[in-house]
Amino acid sequence: MKKFYITTPIYYPSADFHIGHCYTTIIADAIARYKRLTGYDVFFQTGTDEHGEKIEKKAMEAGVTPKEFVDKIIENSKDLWKSLDISYDYFIRTTDKKHEEAVQKIFKKLYDQGDIYKGEYKGLYCVPCESFWTDSQLVDGKCPDCGREVKEVSEESYFFKLSKYQDRLVKFYDDNPNFILPLSRKNEMINNFIKPGLEDLCVSRTSFKWGIPVSFDEKHVVYVWIDALSNYITSLGYPDESSEEFKKYWPADLHLVGKEIVRFHTIIWPIMLMALDLPLPHQVFGHGWLIIDGGKISKSLGNYKDPREYINSYGVDAVRYYALREVPFGSDGNFSEEALISRINTDLANILGNLVNRTISMIHKYFDGTLINNDKTEDIDRDLVDSVLDLKNKVEDKMNGLKINEAIIEIMEVLKKCNKYIDDTTPWILAKDETKKERLSTVLYNILESVRICAILLSPFIPTTSSKILNQINTKKVSYDSTANFGALELGILLNKPEILFARIDMDSKK
Ligand code: MSP
User: Fold this and answer.
1) Overall pTM > 0.85
2) Hey, is 6 helix, strand or coil?
3) Quick check: CB of 502 below 6 Å from ligand 1?
4) Nearest CA, atom 16, ligand 1
5) Looking at ligand 1, which atom is closest to the CA of residue 261?
6) For 202-214, b where at least 16 C-beta lie within 10 A, e where not — what string?
7) Whose CA is nearest to atom 18 of ligand 1?
8) 459 Cα: distance to centroid of ligand 1 (angstroms)
9) Quick check: CB of 24 below 6 Å from ligand 1?
10) What does the angle CA 122 – CA 127 – CA 132 come to, to the nearest 5 degrees?
11) Starting from the edge strand earliest in sequence, which strands make up the sheet with 295-296, in order?
12) Is cis: bond before 182, omega within 30 of 0?
């Protein structure tokens, strides 16, 4: 069986997640589910990035130890992913003993082979982003990522010789043109970081304690990116390269990350792996941000709600659908509750929900809920059947290019065709004429079969809705392979009662 190892970044533990935080994970989940559906052995990993000065400070303010602090809020991440139906296979915490020991070994190995050396660090540091910046990278004297103040830091530190690997990295990019996607992000890396010359990276700190101690020099803790990035291999058992999981899943097929952390994943991470003499991941995709009113979602602006509020009001699949459908993958996309409601009304309630509901209701009304097909086909059926037959490959094409919103659009187009087919064939008029009953059976069969195939292909994106539809149809034909043929839907099945999938929402009532 082919394997697929996909990761999200590991999140900073937080009590204040917003919809933007959910974005990476919803996309990763959709891809993971799609790969599973299409027969891959998937390993989908997420987790939490728990060390660093920021956590140490917050814990101090709360009057608890950093470990007590993270233990308490970690549940918030898990609860959020549960409420979003995230089907991760493994949740790693950087405070896991196994991870901490592995990071110490990695650091020691790099030191022993001369890739890490001791020096003096003077630099400008952004505490919230845990990033060092050079003068020229600052924007208006502030952190280019978050716009906050940076502070000058000077201390004894260990350094990682990124510069030594620069040429190998460039060669790797050249040999693997799809390593960084979208391509614009690759150009950004080359122009902003590689062409000016890679600087060696500060990889340890002495000014705070909340980190993994450097095993041979305990006043230092491992600086957060070496700790954080290693999670992708320590979860698989590294440094034990003979472990089952490591042999099976490494190298990763896809690291999915937000655009602001592409540089860590496409410069530091590949160089760490080269230094460890390990194979490099196949692809890093840097997606855009969800923004609100054209700007960053921000705690200080107070412009967001807990994502669970949207889930409670509109349902998990509505939120997932919006995140996946609304934003062309790779670009930034605006989030607004109005746009969410509008998507629910047009796509989910109208095009999908209404179609399923009226089809199942008609089969109940005209055939007592039993699916029959008297094979009275007509020319008009061809167009619908052909579109349905093409759908599996079209979706596959889009998903292979990580064009998730376009994959969904393809499915929606077929559902729209089903609605048009109903309008054109007018089953309620056929039902009035006893001699048209056989034709009526074929019309309703064609629609329901199209709905079944669309429901299976929608399962990676809106899994709960997909199973509700397949349940209402009461079919056992739910495999991916069964979407390649039109006509697999079993004759004689008794459909379950129709249930509303998405109620239309009155926009005014939400204002
Ligand atoms: N801990 C680091 C990652 C280490 S990976 C080895 C980190 N954590 S984070 O919690 O700040 O971000 C996690 C993910 O959420 C990132 O991919 C980030 O891009 C994403 N998002 C946070 N806000 C976002 C939006 N407003 N929109 C879309 N995604 C954004 O970075």
Assistant:
1) yes
2) strand
3) no
4) 258
5) 31
6) bbbbeebebbbbb
7) 258
8) 25
9) yes
10) 40
11) 295-296, 290-292, 333-334
12) yes
H/E segment holding residue 318: helix 316-326
Q: Are 496 and 471 in contact (CB under 8 A)?
A: yes
- Cross-strand partners of 160: 116, 201
CA of 122 to the centre of ligand 1 (A): 27
Helix (H) or strand (E) segment spanning residue 36: helix 19-37
Residue 142: both structure tokens together: 């502030």
> What's the whole-number average pLDDT of the chain?
95
Report how far ligand 1's centroid is from the alpha carbon of 20 (Å). Answer: 8
User: Cβ(21) to ligand 1 under 6 A?
Assistant: yes
- Residue-wise pLDDT tens digits, 51-81: 998 999 999 999 999 999 999 999 999 999 9
457: amino acid identity, one letter = L
Q: What is the pLDDT of residues 301-340, one digit of tens each?
A: 777 889 999 999 999 999 999 999 998 878 899 999 999 9
Q: What are phi and psi of 42, to 5 degrees?
A: -100, 140
pLDDT of residue 179: 97
User: What residue's CA is closest to ligand 1, atom 21?
Assistant: 21
Residue 400's alpha-carbon distances to 34, 148, 407, 495, in angstroms, are 10, 38, 10, 34
Ligand 1 atom 8: residue of nearest CA: 11
Which structural domains are found in the chain, ordered by start? 336-510 (1.10.730.10)
Tell me the pLDDT tens digit for each residue of 368-379. 999 999 999 999
Q: Name the nearest CA neighbour of 408 among 6, 21, 8, 34.
A: 34
Ligand 1 pocket, residue 288 CB under 6 Å: no
